Amino acid sequence: MAENTNIILESKEPAMGHIEVAPQVLEIIAGIAASQTEGVARMRGSLANSVTELFGRKREHGKGVKLTFDEDELSVDVYVYLNYGVSVPHVALQIQDNVKQQLLFMTELKLRDVDVHVEGVIPEKVDTGVDPNNLFDDEDNNEGDSEQ
């Protein structure tokens, strides 16, 4: 028989029953909180995630997040790629704060820790300056030709 992996939330109200949250829900909350942090380019995903996104399937918000729940304590590992030029420590601290706040706000779970793993830096896309509507326009040739 499969082990119950849901996390039970404790209620301060008189018990009307118990509340269980699937780990995938917590991964999605943490993933959205991390990806919405300014300076985060994207979350780490698997090759399968990249292929499904390429074919237009829905984006998986829980990618790049790993949960560990032991001894009634929750630890979150977040794997991110940052934009080039941002302060890595500043963005990492902001990710930790955002994930902690959102999980506390939405589930009232207290975290043992939020570990941020910066997997890489993504450079800005450079504008090549090519006009797709006028690919063969050669400005150098036009400057040399003057009407007389």
Automatic annotation (TrEMBL):
Q: Residues annotated as region Disordered? A: 128-148
InterPro entries in alphabetical order: Asp23
A Pfam family recorded for this sequence: Asp23
**So which domain of life are we looking at?**
Bacteria
Bias (Acidic residues) ranges: 136-148
PANTHER family linked to this entry:
ASP23_GLS24 FAMILY ENVELOPE STRESS RESPONSE PROTEIN, HYPOTHETICAL CYTOSOLIC PROTEIN-RELATED
Family of the protein in this entry: Belongs to the asp23 family.
The protein depicted here goes by the name: Asp23/Gls24 family envelope stress response protein
**Species annotation:** Levilactobacillus bambusae
